[in-house]
Design a protein that fits this description.
The structure holds two protein chains of two kinds.
Chain A (H helix, E strand, L loop, with lengths): L1 H55 L2 H11 L11 E2 L2
Chain B lengths: L7 H5 L3 H28 L1 H12 E6 L6 E2 L5 E13 L10 H9 L3 H8 L6 E7 L1 H9 L5 E10 L7 H4 L11 H5 L1 H5 L3 E7 L5 E4 L12 E2 L4 H18 L3 E8 L5 E7 L17 H4 L9 H10 L8 E3 L4 E4 L2 E4 L6 E3 H7 L2 H9 L3 H10 L26 H8 L8 H7 L1 H4 L3 E2 L14 E2 L3 H12 L19 E8 L15 E9 L6 E8 L8 H4 L1 H14 L7 H8 L4 E2 L1
Classes of the chains: A mainly alpha, B alpha+beta.
Chain lengths: 84, 576
């Protein structure tokens, strides 16, 4: 009778532990999913930055900036000096 | 009489009627419960399971990133960027005053169009796909019930119209429609993945219900294109087309030793980031459009004659007064050259001189040389829509084709074929196939010319860019440049070249630099320049000079002779 009672209690305890483990698994799985989502978002952001870097470092944009904003121009023939 | 006092158990004992009534009620309740359970679990099992399944299970598609396209220096030419698609649930939507107009403005659509979309009977529609994330966040900030957004991807081309013809573009479904995007679609695409997940009441993902099918990202493609030179070539071409009021222009720069394409540009171009409405200038004309190359074929014809030893560099040929009749065809020069050497024939681009040289060759030998130089065959670039050009079999040549082919008529080539046809002059007689993809194996060049002849032709072509030549505009201070100009009449619809005065011309130039140790070959074609000169040297020569000068600088190619630099460039310069 006593043994049966102990086994019954153990059954209850293990059942509760199983439910708890399952709950913890789901919580952790959810956290993992969030991290995976963050990874994808970071990957997207990296792609975005690469594209931005590529378009902003484009020769066309640089020469436009040099000409219009920095007022840079290639020297004319008279301005060139040859050092021998 | 004393009343009978009930004992405790007698007191609580129900009457027979009550007992039966209670039993009946309990039985009825049990029957109701049992039948309900039977109804739910037996008769409505599938429906309810389906409902439960739909509420807690989701099939998620896992996005496979489309590969990026890089230039030879790992600069991005095409990549996928994140955008949002604006969704609408017409059943849930509820606009407050003014919100509808704001939404229409942000979406860039008319209010009527938005109203039509809202009135649809569907449960879920896309108001607009591939919206800029900044605009999407403004839309979501309106917090209109029923209006949401989904993540989506869009192809972005940072080089815009400069490399548009090479890279091409992809459709809204992400599949390539033109250029490298089309050619390498399978390689770039990758395979989408998916997974089945379990979500809880708070819509949190709590478990995977089946094995996750991991997405396989597309592979990156590395091109041989140099973005820096691509920009220079495009800008030079654009400037020339505007200045000469030409219809269009194309240019290709290759590494003469490897056949790698460094630039491939066309103007007018298109911006692949925008929706392509007109497809007029979408094709990559460098490899799709054929034209009669004109005088740029002369070095090949002379090479054939030198190989067959029917002439040598110093052989004198009488070009007369600039008019020469062969059968019924009148061959003319721009001015009388009199008796000139083979070298001078190339330098002055004499049609009569080359015709007289071709007379010494039989049709088959001439045709064989053109075939060996890759005229009428693919360049190996492996690009969609490539044209083979036209080189009819010598047996089908009419008598005049024999002569006109020698100065670039009766044959058609693409500008890419023309660039390849000059590789034997730069590689001691070996022709190199063109390469656009870095990963393609380098093929060994095929010998089509003796080392001696190739060197001789190269030396002769140097005179073209010197004083007295037709392309002095292509000379680069400090470097020896070899090249050949071409100014060919365009064929008019219906055949022929049109009446004098109404004729259209193609101005072309193919150059090799430095001629002392060739590294670059550039071929340029300007279609119908109408303002100023229409000569290849004048129109296309400056483009060669600009682009190849930049290439020589970027690739640190040592100068041939500083004296030349001093003489040509430093005329007005002060010495210190």
């Amino acid at each position: 009778m006593k043994l049966n009672l102990i086994l019954f209690l153990l059954l209850i305890v293990f059942a509760l532990l199983k439910i708890n483990a399952h709950h913890l698994y789901r919580v952790n799985h959810h956290s993992l999913e969030i991290e995976k989502q963050k990874t994808i978002e970071l990957k997207d952001e990296r792609n975005q930055l690469l594209i931005e870097e590529s378009s902003k470092s484009g020769n066309g944009r640089i020469s436009e900036y040099a000409k219009n904003k920095l007022k840079m121009n290639p020297p004319e023939k008279k301005q060139k000096k040859l050092i021998k | 009489m004393r009343s009978k006092i009930k004992k405790k158990n007698e007191f609580f004992e129900l009457s027979k009627f009550r007992r039966r009534f209670t039993l009946l009620v309990l039985l009825t309740l049990f029957c109701i419960l049992f039948s309900r359970a039977f109804f739910l679990q037996g008769m409505q099992k599938d429906f309810l399971q389906q409902e439960g399944f739909e509420r807690s299970n989701r099939n998620i598609e896992l996005y496979a990133y489309r590969g990026k396209i890089y230039d030879r220096n790992n600069q991005i030419l095409a990549a996928s960027e994140t955008v949002r698609s604006i969704t609408l649930e017409p059943n849930r939507v509820d606009f407050k005053k003014g919100e509808k107009k704001k939404l229409a403005n942000l979406l860039g659509m008319k209010l009527n169009t938005l109203n039509k979309k809202i009135k649809t009977k569907k449960n879920h529609i896309y108001l607009k796909r591939k919206v800029d994330p900044k605009i999407a966040s403004k839309i979501l900030a309106l917090k209109i019930p029923g209006v949401g957004s989904e993540k989506d991807y869009r192809r972005s081309y940072p080089d815009q119209e400069i490399s548009a013809h090479v890279v091409g573009f992809s459709g809204s479904d992400g599949n390539g429609l033109e250029g490298v995007e089309l050619k390498k679609n399978d390689y770039l695409s990758g395979t989408q993945g998916y997974k089945k997940i379990l979500i809880d009441a708070r819509r949190r993902v709590v478990d995977n219900l089946s094995e996750v099918n991991v997405p396989i990202d597309g592979k990156d493609v590395h091109l041989t294109i140099d973005k820096r030179l691509q920009h220079v070539a495009f800008q030079s071409l654009k400037k020339t087309i505007h200045e000469s009021e030409a219809i269009s222009g194309s240019a290709i720069l290759i590494d003469s030793k490897t056949g790698e394409i460094l630039t491939m540009v066309n103007y007018p171009s298109f911006n692949p980031n925008h929706r392509i409405r007109k497809r007029t200038f979408v094709r990559n004309r460098v490899i799709t459009d054929m034209f009669e190359p004109g005088s740029t074929m002369k070095p090949i014809s002379i090479a054939a004659a030198l190989e067959k030893k029917v002439v040598n560099v110093n052989t004198k040929i009488d070009t007369g007064n600039g008019f020469y009749k062969v059968g019924r065809t009148l061959v003319t020069d721009t001015k009388p050259h009199g008796i000139i050497s083979v070298k001078e024939i190339l330098q002055t681009s004499s049609n009569i001189g080359v015709t007289k040289i071709a007379e010494k060759l039989n049709k088959k030998d001439l045709w064989q040389t053109y075939t060996n130089f890759g005229i009428g065959s693919f360049t190996g670039v492996n690009f969609p829509g490539e044209s083979k050009g036209v080189l009819r079999d010598h047996k089908k040549w009419r008598e005049r084709d024999h002569y006109s082919a020698s100065y670039g008529y009766a044959v058609s080539t693409t500008i890419a074929q023309l660039a390849r046809a000059y590789t034997p002059f730069a590689n001691k007689g070996e022709i190199k196939n063109l390469r656009l993809f870095k990963n393609d194996p380098i093929k060994i060049g095929q010998r089509v010319l003796s080392i001696e002849t190739s060197k001789t032709i190269l030396k002769m072509m140097e005179s073209v860019t010197k004083e007295g030549g037709t392309a002095i505009q292509a000379s680069i201070p400090g470097y020896k440049v070899a090249g050949k100009t071409g100014t060919a009449r365009q064929v008019v619809p219906g055949g022929g070249y049109g009446k004098p005065g109404e004729r259209k011309y193609n101005a072309s130039f193919v150059g090799i630099a430095p001629a002392s140790n060739p590294k670059f070959i550039m071929a340029i074609l300007i279609e119908d320049p109408t303002k100023g000169s229409n000569y290849g040297g004048v129109v296309a020569g400056p483009i060669f000079k600009k682009v190849v000068s930049e290439a020589l600088k970027i690739y640190s190619i040592p100068q041939d002779d500083i004296e030349i630099f001093n003489k040509v460039e430093v005329d007005n310069q002060e010495e210190i």
